[in-house]
Design a protein that fits this description.
Largest sheet of chain A: none
CATH topology of the largest domain in chain A: Tetracycline Repressor, domain 2
Helix content of chain A: over 70%
Oligomer: homotetramer
CATH architecture of the largest domain in chain A: Orthogonal Bundle
Strand content of chain A: under 5%
Order of helices and strands of chain A: HHHHHHHHHH
Shape of chain A: globular
Largest interface: A-B, 48 and 47 residues
Distance between the termini of chain A: 73 Å
Number of helices of chain A: 10
CATH class of the largest domain in chain A: Mainly Alpha
Radius of gyration of chain A: 21 Å
Chain lengths: ~210, ~210, ~210, ~210
DNA sequence: GATGAATGAGCCTTCATTCAT
DNA sequence: AATGAATGAAGGCTCATTCAT
């Protein structure tokens, strides 16, 4: 006979979410190596052992954080309504979305940065990642296909290169803003510089994708 | 002609260099947090305490490594002979140089990556960095000035944006090659893909800088 | 009647006590700087990290040790029954108690000695110390007040000076016994010398406090 | 054939003295364990190895410091002219001298304190100490002898007890001033408290030594 | 006599993880 | 599900001392 559970139980789902939120913040702040399991537990206001209970270990926790981060950006991206736009305009719209997403979610860049330093060892073990990014690939391909038909996108454009370039220009700028600000002796994150950067990127991409 | 050094007392210069070389390798491999002073000492085949004797602490050692890394790329860049080329060709030549430098010196990307994760805290405390990057800034400016005179570079191009874009496209691709390879399910570092990427970047930059 | 403790989860209280006991011994033996956290852990038969888990760091551990030491002597002092004695006799009784406490608890002297070398930096950060010593101050004051009424203690005697002199004569003798034994070429800790010292101190104090 | 020494030689005696001065200061400040050979070398503005060259090791250096400290107080004490005073007055004069010496040379107390914590291990190995303290013993004995003849000092007073008590009252007060100030919640080192303490000690000793 | 380079051992502290309840 | 206690293995850094010149 199963013993009647006392109502003390705190809701596992809630705990997991709290852990995930705290872990995201701290992995983003300090990187995988720099973040401390203790800190995450404290920030999540749960017992440290619960992390191990729910996620197994630090690596698996990081993997979960990464997957969630990817899922989030891809979901928002998929929710964009680009149907009223010409393909080239849609691409520029995507440049803007991506840039703004990075700005609104600085954690995303830092998480990816850390993962890359680790040579994607978590992502490589995650079978979910590909399916998560599937929608993104489909989007790239369909935009290019549409653009070709519309004759507003050059026929030799490749989905992967497009995707990478859209990310690269904004990602690099934001990720390296600290070293760049030091080298160039100005604050790259001022509103003026940010606005200018977005314009510059759109200009660049637009010249590049035209037939 | 420089005087031949008498075999200096247990050769401090040599030790420092060995430490620096080992530190570069290991900081690049594991990042600042991930690298271990013990490992660096072992790799440099010197006693751990010697690192502290010569460099003070792990942070100062990392700063020295970073400065040397910047000095190296800037020296090679400054050594390029771009005088026989039109300004736009020179820019493309620079794209190629930068890309090839990244490929030949994968440590550079990883070091910068780690430093950015730390919000450039070492660079910010290093007064040498700016002077080291001075030549680069001068180069950007002079190329643009020349290009405008030659009417081969659009008049509204800014040195910093040019510099950043030249770096961004290659840097992002290489730095994120592990996550991207996973997401796009192909090996981005195959010779074929690398060659294609260089062509793509030159094409993109060339379309962007033209008047 | 206290409730019997259910065998508490791996008994934290017991661990803390074991640590405290070992720390007292080793801090007394080697002083704050000389004592090793490793040794303390080993002597307490617990894992070193547990010290940090329970006490935070070496300084906080030393503070805890000091507080306990003060608490111990003050508790025993407070337990003395001096009510049947005249005030001057009570003071002499206190001289004897103090001396015997020092002899029975050589750690106490050595701990205070170390703390004084550190300019009381632990005590200064401990808000408990004053309350712990409160009972002692009250005792001094009440004895003097009583003695004045009884006309067996001179009216100009001050509590602090009384307290200090009672401690000083025994404390100095015992603390410096090693250097003094060397200088005076005899063993100050032989039973004969100890007995003589106690008599001498009582004589000295008794002459001093009489009206 | 010996090579002619260049005049570069810096005067060994001067170096030794500089080392000794720096060592006294730092051993007093931090105790034997707490003081660092590096710091001493730096404070003495000489090369660290020179300390080993001149003194052998840290322990021997500490021994030298201790011996010098004893020599200094005994020399000044021996230089006192007590001939014009009655023996009891001379003793009080000695109480005052000792107190003032402690105040003017706080290092002395701290050095002895550290040495006592180490159970006089340096002094025990130093054959010089006894001869250095010889004059002090002689002084004690002669004062008591004189006092007895003069009938101004009680006949049962012992030289060692006299010596110890003269030291103890001032030494304890000053050495423990940090802990005492905390416990008694007042500044024991204020001029007023210091003056009062001296008077108190003279009063106490004077009552004690009278026949 | 004097110096800077070099070292082995060890110190305090921290970390991810597991145990016992 | 949830918790606090407990641990083995480092990790950065320091210390007294010695080497080589």
């Amino acid at each position: 006979m199963r013993q009647p559970r006392t109502t003390r139980t705190r809701n596992a789902e809630d705990s997991k979410e709290r852990i995930l939120r705290a872990a995201t913040k701290l992995f983003a702040k300090s990187g995988f190596d720099g973040a401390r399991v203790d800190e995450i537990a404290k920030a999540a206001k749960i017992n440290k052992q619960l992390i191990y209970h729910h996620f197994g270990n630090k690596d698996k926790l990081f993997t979960a954080v990464l997957e969630q981060a990817y899922r989030s950006i891809r979901e928002q991206e998929a929710a964009l309504d680009l149907s009223g736009l010409h393909a080239d305009e849609a691409v520029l719209s995507l440049v803007e979305f991506t840039w703004k997403y990075y700005l609104a979610n600085p954690d995303f860049i830092r998480l990816l940065n850390s993962e890359n330093q680790l040579e994607a060892r978590h992502l490589k073990g995650s079978p979910n990642t590909r399916s998560i990014n599937k929608s993104h690939m489909v989007l790239m391909e369909s935009l290019i296909a549409r653009g070709k038909k519309e004759k507003r996108i050059r026929p030799d454009l490749e989905p992967m290169q497009l995707s990478i370039n859209i990310s690269a220009l904004g990602f690099f700028y934001l990720m390296n803003r600290h070293t760049l600000s030091t080298v160039f002796e100005r604050d790259l994150t001022s509103p003026r510089h940010l606005a200018k950067r977005l314009e510059g990127m759109k200009d660049l991409i637009s010249r590049w994708i035209r037939p």
